[in-house]
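From the methods appendix. Each design record in this collection lists the tokenized structure first, followed by the designed amino acid sequence. Records were kept in a plain field format so they could be parsed without special tools. The example shown here is representative of the layout used throughout.

RECORD:
FOLD TOKENS (483 positions):
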């Protein structure tokens, strides 16, 4: 294979991708935060594997001094002890990224650092805005020059602009985020405060933690456990929190909606978040177990073994097994070391994209009727290969159960669910999909079950039923800055 034939692709499979993970920290005792941010980002690596970065500053130093480092690659590829050693400061933010809007380039890596008349801001953002184009054009017509093609820079400019007419940095953040439409969980390090904001729908998670005299804002609770911090609480949908030694944790709820209007991304529970995280008080692992139980109740089938497609299918498979009494087993061995520079095999090559990531344990499946649980089917290009791998390993029957409903609509809020025409479930019956993927039977989670996964918390189901919490854009604007 020559280099022209090689195609570099970070995630050569049919799965979905989260856009980002964020981590901010302020140590009131003045200790350096960069190495803790590094470990926090490491725990959030599943939320984005394309690029990462850390920006820190010293709250007792000059207001404009932010040191930052970001690059393409995994957290442990980008940061060395030497680089971390040069990032000195007691306040900072970090970010891991997968791009759903804005190209995958170093310029688009975060955090963004913005110098303006009141000092320096460092920002990290998770989510997608649906009015970023309008906001960007307004800014461009009044002289703004953009360095990147990501929504985050639009937010940064608005905060800087609002800061000129606001008494405090948090007031500027609140005024700026009031203009945003879409999904955002944001952490901002101002010269003397750590500020977090979560959009009124609460699409993406954000929580607060504490370790000794240091406070943390991060996407998932698993990152708090990794660094030995205690969980304080979730940032509520529509809340702006400000953390400083003078005020402790201050809350502004002026953008909050009625609880029934909130719209958490249900895919955080089904797939994106780590199973050891809790989002808004609900265990991600518990949700997945429940999804498996519901599949066993609603789509029962006689079989010898229930297996999960790693990782997020595993807990749902255990749930199916607990409910049905059919033994749970391991059928796949996963190679998790697929980094950014992974070279995707050519179509004609004998190495298959799926097999370099997953192998079947023949001893576990040979001669058995298998129930295989996966979290979703997007285009269907992976499912047929996994089913075939099980058959090639000697499975006598393969029954596929999916721990989410069929995808019928795209997502505009930070998940890369594509246009309808590319979705296998669009315009097809369940039996037609079953035939395409080569399964003996196929069952999806009933859309009516989704609220039970979030224990009654209000959720977004747009990609399943086309009813979005916000009017979707007339045209698909995702990534349109590049067009
Ligand atoms: S449309 Fe689907 S993927 Fe997008 S935010 Fe809503 S539930 Fe999540």
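DESIGN:
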């Amino acid at each position: 294979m020559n280099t022209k034939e090689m195609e570099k692709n970070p995630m050569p499979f049919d799965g979905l991708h989260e856009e980002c993970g964020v981590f901010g920290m302020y140590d009131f005792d003045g200790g350096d935060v960069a190495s803790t941010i590094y470990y926090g980002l490491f725990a959030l690596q599943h939320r984005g594997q394309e690029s990462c970065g850390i920006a820190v500053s010293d709250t007792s130093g000059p207001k404009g001094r932010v040191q930052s480092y970001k690059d393409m690659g995994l957290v442990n590829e980008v940061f060395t002890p030497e680089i971390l050693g040069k990032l000195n400061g007691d306040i900072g933010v970090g970010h891991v990224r997968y791009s759903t809007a804005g190209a995958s380039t170093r310029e688009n890596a975060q955090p963004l650092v913005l110098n303006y008349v009141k000092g320096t801001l460092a920002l990290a953002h998770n989510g997608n805005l649906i009015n970023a184009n309008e906001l960007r054009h307004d800014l461009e017509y009044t002289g703004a020059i953009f360095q990147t093609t990501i929504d985050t820079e639009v937010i940064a400019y608005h905060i800087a602009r609002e800061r000129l007419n606001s008494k405090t940095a948090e007031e500027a953040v609140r005024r700026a985020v009031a203009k945003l439409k879409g999904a955002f969980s944001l952490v901002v390090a101002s010269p003397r405060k750590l500020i977090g904001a979560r959009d009124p729908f609460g699409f993406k998670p954000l929580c607060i933690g504490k370790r000794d005299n240091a406070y943390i804002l991060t996407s998932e609770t698993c990152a708090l456990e990794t660094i030995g911090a205690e969980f304080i609480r979730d940032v509520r949908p529509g809340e702006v929190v400000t953390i400083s030694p003078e005020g402790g944790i201050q809350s502004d709820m002026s953008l909050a909606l009625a609880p029934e209007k909130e719209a958490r991304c249900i895919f955080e529970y089904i797939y994106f978040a780590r199973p050891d995280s809790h989002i808004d008080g609900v265990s991600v692992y518990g949700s997945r177990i429940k999804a498996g139980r519901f599949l066993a109740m609603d789509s029962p089938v006689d079989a010898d073994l229930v297996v999960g497609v790693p990782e997020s299918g595993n807990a749902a498979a255990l749930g199916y097994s607990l409910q049905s009494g059919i033994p749970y087993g391991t059928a796949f061995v996963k190679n998790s070391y697929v980094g950014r520079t992974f070279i995707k095999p050519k179509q004609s090559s004998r190495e298959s994209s799926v097999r370099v990531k997953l192998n079947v344990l023949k001893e576990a499946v040979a001669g058995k009727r298998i129930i295989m649980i996966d979290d979703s089917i997007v285009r269907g290009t992976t499912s047929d290969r996994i089913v075939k791998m099980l058959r090639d390993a000697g499975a006598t029957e393969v029954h596929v159960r999916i721990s989410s409903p069929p995808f019928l609509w795209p997502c505009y809020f930070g998940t890369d669910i594509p246009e309808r025409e590319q979705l296998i479930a669009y315009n097809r019956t369940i039996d037609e999909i079953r035939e395409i993927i080569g399964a003996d039977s196929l069952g999806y989670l009933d859309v009516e079950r989704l609220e039970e996964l979030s224990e009654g918390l209000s959720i977004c189901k747009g990609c399943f039923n086309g009813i979005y919490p916000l009017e979707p854009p007339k045209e698909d604007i995702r990534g349109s800055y590049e067009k």
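APPENDIX NOTE: The chain has a mean pLDDT of 89.
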